[in-house]
Amino acid sequence: MGKIRIDEEFCKGCMLCVNFCPQKLIQVSNHVSKKGYHPAEFSDPQSKCSGCTLCALVCPDAAITVYKERKTDVVKK
Question: pLDDT tens for residues 29-43?
Fold first, then answer.
């Protein structure tokens, strides 16, 4: 399971991440940032994000950080 954070200070709303997200979990926001752009926003209410990092790789401004949950091994006694 993955999760992303989009830094509004750097996002210019270019929509590359929107177009590349295979799960379509990123949209352009309706609000305007301090710099006058409509930044991208992440919405994943059903936890579909796999943490594939495509959004971060295509972001020209390095405004996206991807977090991926690690699976831990459970030791049975």
Answer: 999 999 999 999 999
